[in-house]
């Protein structure tokens, strides 16, 4: 019939296989650690020969690259929803945004390591996979600028504060909330330092 879209079933099968490979790569990375991921192990669990894997990913770094892009796209969706629901007060905004990032980070150590730590020697994400993280960064910088925070040092301190609490949570209390309970206090200390006005009668 005129107007019908012709399905490319071969492309659909190829994409389904690619997604299955990525799911298995995440499983193995969570079981054994990111640096220990091997193409042979991925191929074996998927049920294909290792050389066949190269028709979907040219190298192990190509798998890491796709995983990196996938992880940042997931957080981009989370952050977009979070930004759309932020409270009006600048301090309340920063507390809410910090909690959303913290919660996303600590739920999956392996994903966090790939996104934010250099755990894989020689791996550098491609511009295509890095694009989502750049978009997230720019949205965050725009939000900070809108509440009057533009100094690069102030921004870097906020990033470091969040990363430090995430690292402490993952290292010392995985699955707990000891560092999450410090988030609001830490963000308020940062807000005092950068001169954000105190909340007066605001609700989060």
Structure in words:
- There is one protein chain.
- This protein has 204 residues and is mainly α.
- It has two domains: 1-57, Homeodomain-like (Arc Repressor Mutant, subunit A, Orthogonal Bundle); 67-204, Tetracycline Repressor, domain 2 (Orthogonal Bundle).
- Helices cover 68% and strands 0% of the residues.
- The protein has helices spanning 9-32, 39-46, 50-53, 60-84, 90-106, 109-116, 127-146, 152-172, 183-194.
- α4 (60-84) packs parallel to α7 (127-146) and α5 packs across α9.
- The relative contact order is 0.12.
Which properties best describe this structure?
204 residues, Tetracycline Repressor, domain 2, Arc Repressor Mutant, subunit A, mainly alpha
């Amino acid at each position: 019939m005129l107007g019908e879209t012709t399905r490319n079933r071969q492309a659909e099968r190829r994409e389904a296989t690619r997604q299955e490979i990525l799911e298995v790569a995440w499983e193995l990375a969570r079981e054994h650690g990111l640096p220990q991921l091997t193409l042979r192990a991925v191929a074996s669990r998927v049920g294909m020969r290792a050389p066949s894997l190269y028709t979907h990913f040219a190298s192990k770094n190509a798998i890491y690259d796709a995983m990196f892009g996938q992880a940042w796209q997931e957080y981009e969706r989370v952050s977009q929803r979070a930004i759309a629901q932020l409270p009006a007060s600048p301090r309340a905004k920063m507390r809410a945004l910090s909690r959303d990032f913290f919660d996303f980070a600590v739920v999956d150590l392996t994903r966090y390591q790939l996104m934010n730590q250099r755990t894989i020697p020689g791996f550098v994400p491609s511009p295509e996979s890095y694009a989502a993280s750049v978009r997230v960064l720019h949205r965050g910088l725009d939000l900070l600028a809108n509440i009057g925070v533009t100094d690069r040092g102030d921004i870097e301190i906020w990033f470091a504060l969040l990363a430090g609490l995430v690292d402490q949570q993952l290292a010392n209390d995985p699955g707990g909330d000891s560092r999450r309970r410090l988030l609001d206090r830490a963000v308020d200390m940062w807000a005092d330092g950068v001169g954000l006005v105190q909340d007066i009668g605001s609700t989060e």
